[in-house]
Amino acid sequence: MARFVVNGKSVQVDVEPSTPLLWVLREQVGLTGTKYGCGVAQCGACTVHIDGQAIRSCAMPVSAVEGKRITTIEGLAQGGKLSKVQQAWLTHDVPQCGYCQSGMIMAVAALLQQKPKPTDADIDAAITNICRCGTFQQVREAIHMAAKA
Ligand code: FES
Ligand code: FES
Predict the structure, then answer these.
(1) Whose CB among 82, 103, 110, 139 lies 3.0–4.6 Å from 54's, allowing a Cys bridge?
(2) Are 59 and 20 in contact (CB under 8 A)?
(3) Distance, CA 106 to ligand 1 centroid (Å)?
(4) What pLDDT digit, counting tens, does each position of 32-72 carry?
């Protein structure tokens, strides 16, 4: 049994404590915007926020998030209004296949919380998500746009 808050809603799930948070979000909670890529904390496709920090949920046992506040891509827009990161993504037409993008956006949203005006070096250090479509240049431009919004 684990209890936590997802996108402002309390959730209680009956799963093995070692079950990765990613699977609980997708299978038990029904939020499939968070993606499975590598399963070993390398690619970032599964990135969500736990108490405001960007975390790779494939490597996070659900027992470790007891009582914590989780935000997924589905919870990033507020009151029907896209976040500034999502808006910049649209303006720069960032996604290609889109598979990596929810994790990318969540990582960027957490970066901008911590560093509202990141340099290219800050971006390189913080955004280590892998995009097989190679959207890295558009990602960088969209981050700088979101930082100015
Ligand atoms: S699926 Fe979690 S980092 Fe790749
Ligand atoms: S947009 Fe296709 S993997 Fe990133």
Answers:
(1) 110
(2) yes
(3) 13
(4) 999 999 999 999 999 999 999 999 999 999 999 999 999 99
